[in-house]
Design goal:
The chain is α/β, with parallel strands linked by helices. Helix content is about 35%, strand content about 15%. It is built from 15 helices and 15 strands. The strands form 3 sheets. A 6-stranded parallel β-sheet has the order 3-4-2-1-5-6, with helices on both faces. A 6-stranded parallel β-sheet has the order 9-8-7-13-14-15. A 3-stranded antiparallel β-sheet has the order 11-10-12. Helix 4 links the parallel strand 3 and strand 4. Helix 8 crosses helix 14, helix 9 crosses helix 10 and helix 11 runs parallel beside helix 12. The radius of gyration is 23 Å and the shape is elongated. The termini are close together. The relative contact order is 0.13. The chain binds adenosine-5'-diphosphate and magnesium ion (MG). The site of adenosine-5'-diphosphate (ADP) has 21 residues, from strand 12 and helix 13.
Length: about 375
């Protein structure tokens, strides 16, 4: 199936509904603490302005649970967007009703309107068709550019698309995610190696399974490596282990594609040591060891495609961030297509100022992983 692109639509003079992801983190005082998500939507919005479209933006913010909770208003996002675009951004205090309709109708070519949080209505998360239809009536065309919510079949991320046959498309942000997480990983240049870390096997079982199927080798680090080691009868001391998942870990291991750390950085909350093989009683594994870093780096040199999700140690503590940082550096030095997805993995890259040297940093946390696992998402399927 082919996803239509925003550049294929005739948008001039049309009212274009754009589902964006302005779900920005807020400070206790309600200020925007990181505007990356707003910035990520600029290419699509600026393109539409330039083409003379009338831009109507839809988004959610936080989890207001279907109620009009003022702390989740999108108003500050309108102000921030206005600064970034260097032009006024109109705001309607409800995504439905008179004010929204009037504001949408009053829009001139190249003007932008942001509607209030769609999750102020319970119908949004319920994926309600009637609610989606009411919002659909505000626009002539529909663009989805909200990758961070594309794994949810909500009213404005999926249901709404059915009211725009032949008049819907993916925005630039969504297109980029489809290009890298979809096409590049579906038909990868080989060898295709994956690195997976993070805290829990349970939260990544589907992704691990998909990567074992699609890639040539999967390097497992972070806390989840200990569940794999324990399942093979290797002692893991007081490292994080999910005993309930040992069976699943063993069956993944039987694929022959999984590589586990050879050595570990361990601590008993006082001493910090490096150990090969088994982890002694009372010690917790907190990072991959230097041997592992060396060996994994050697493998990564031969890769043509590398996907990475999940820190390889407790990287929030600089003492246990060496594995994560070294592997991040290896990715930036590689000539392979490098793709990084996941909230903490992406911040590990950004913290080191390495973002520009990675081919693609995926903007969606949960959405990225679900896309790899399932090969598509409701927010993409609805455009096909
Ligand atoms: P992502 O957001 O990139 O998908 P996760 O949320 O799955 O990553 O995992 C990140 C968390 O995993 C971090 O908070 C990190 O401290 C933790 N972690 C990594 N390695 C270990 C370890 N050896 N022991 C305990 N926690 C770990
Ligand atoms: Mg995380």
């Amino acid at each position: 199936m082919v996803v239509p692109l925003v550049q294929q639509l005739e948008v001039a003079g049309k009212r274009v509904l754009v589902r964006v992801d302005f779900n920005v983190p807020l400070t206790k005082e309600g200020a925007i603490s990181d505007d990356s998500r707003i910035k990520a939507s600029l290419p699509t919005i600026q393109y539409l302005i330039k083409q003379g479209a009338k831009v109507i933006l839809l988004s959610h913010l936080g989890r207001p649970d279907g109620q009009k909770k003022p702390q989740y208003t999108l108003k500050p996002c309108a102000a921030r967007l206005s600064q970034l675009l260097k032009q006024p951004v109109h705001f309607a205090s409800d995504c439905l009703g008179d004010e929204a309709e009037r504001s949408a109708r009053a829009l001139q070519k190249g003007e932008v309107l942001l509607l209030e949080n769609v999750r102020f209505y319970p119908e949004e998360e319920a994926g309600d068709k009637a609610f989606a239809e009411k919002i659909a009536q505000l626009g002539d065309l529909y663009i989805n550019d909200a990758f961070g919510t594309a794994h949810r079949a909500h009213a404005t991320t999926a249901a709404i698309a059915s009211f725009f046959p032949g008049k819907k498309a993916a925005g630039f942000l969504l297109q980029k995610e489809i290009e890298f997480l979809g096409q590049a990983l579906l038909m990868p240049q080989r060898p295709f190696y994956a690195l997976v870390g993070g805290s829990k096997v349970s939260s990544k079982l589907g992704v691990l399974q998909a990567l074992v199927n699609k890639s040539d080798k999967v390097f497992v680090g972070g806390a989840m490596a200990y569940t794999f080691l324990k399942a093979q009868g290797i002692s893991t001391g007081s490292s994080l282990v999910e005993e309930a998942l040992e069976k699943e870990a063993l069956s993944l291991w039987q694929s022959g594609k999984i590589f586990l750390p050879l050595d570990h950085i361990i601590t008993d909350k006082g001493a910090i040591k490096t150990v090969e093989g088994a982890i002694p009683q009372g010690f917790q594994g907190v990072d991959i060891g230097p041997q592992t870093i060396k060996e994994w780096k050697r493998y990564l040199q031969e890769a043509k495609t590398i996907f990475w999700n999940g820190p390889l140690g407790i990287f929030e503590d600089a003492r246990f961030a060496i594995g994560t940082n070294e592997i991040a550096k290896a990715l930036t030095e590689s000539s392979a297509i490098t793709i990084v997805g996941g909230g903490d993995s992406v911040s590990a890259i950004e913290n080191q100022g390495l973002a520009k040297k990675i081919t693609h940093l995926s903007t969606g946390g949960g959405a990225s992983l679900e896309y790899i696992e399932k090969g598509s998402l409701p927010g993409i399927i609805c455009l096909e």
